[in-house]
Design brief:
With about 230 residues, the chain is an alpha+beta fold. Helix content is about 45%, strand content about 20%. It has one domain (about 10-234). The longest helix is centred in the C-terminal third of the chain and has 20 residues, at about 215-234.
Length: about 230
């Protein structure tokens, strides 16, 4: 058999897929990943992905405001989904919002999910189940059968909430703890043109400064907010 030009898979990649119930094919990014919470996400998600989903890690995207990198990309012929695993020490929420608005506004991704590290640590299957509820097409039959049984908490999402909300917050036990996830999505805006999603406002702001870096945009936006607050207080 002619194997010229083909890159053989490393045995560790094949074993990882087999141990996690995946076909030993090169459609899923194998470890190592860049953080423990990324390990958790991959371990609990990849085995439930449909065979036509290409899962890549540390995808770099070139935008008008610089190069951005996302933790994971799940891609089919119909959709591109970015996953961000948010460790507290690595992420600035407002900076992430501006960056996400650019990635969506320039149509590099259709949807971007953000999961907190604490939720991935303690409720990994709840994170994957939430994605399953919102984007069933990227999951396989095994996900349909098992995820409801494996999740820790009973999170009820109405059809209206699933079709319109970009921020999900659930109370969990013990009291005063909660599960939180963000979904910023082009598809939400397409399906609900009467709703005004915050990422669109930030994208329009970024477009006013076409050559500005992300840090420069963050500085400008922060300064504008401080100025507005000062004027309001006076």
């Amino acid at each position: 058999m002619d194997t010229e030009g083909k890159k053989p898979e490393h045995i560790n990649e094949i074993l990882f897929r087999l141990l996690n119930g995946q076909p030993p094919v090169n459609n899923v990014a194998a470890p190592p990943y860049e953080s423990p919470i990324e390990d958790i996400f991959a371990e609990h998600c990849f085995k439930y992905l449909s065979e036509d989903v290409l899962a890549e890690k540390q995808t770099e995207v070139t935008t008008k405001h610089g190069n951005f990198r996302v933790d994971f990309e799940l891609k089919t012929s119909m959709t591109r989904i970015a996953i961000e695993c948010d460790g507290k020490e690595f992420h600035n929420l407002f900076k992430d919002e501006i960056r996400d608005s650019i990635l969506l506004g320039e149509k590099h991704f259709d949807t971007i999910y953000h999961f907190r590290g604490s939720d991935l640590n303690y409720y990994p299957y709840d994170c994957i189940w939430l994605m399953f509820i919102l984007d069933k097409s990227i999951f396989n039959k095994r996900a349909h059968l098992q995820l409801v049984k494996l999740r820790e908490n009973i999170f009820e999402i109405s059809t209206e909430k699933a079709n319109t909300e970009d921020h999900f917050l659930f109370n969990i036990e013990p009291p005063n703890l909660f599960f939180r996830a963000f979904r910023r999505s082009l598809k939400l805006e397409t399906n609900n043109p009467h709703l005004r999603y915050y990422w669109r406002t930030l994208y329009e702001f970024a477009c006013e400064y076409p050559n500005a870096s992300l840090d420069e945009l963050l500085s400008i936006r922060t300064s504008d907010i401080k100025k507005m607050m000062s004027e309001y207080n006076h």
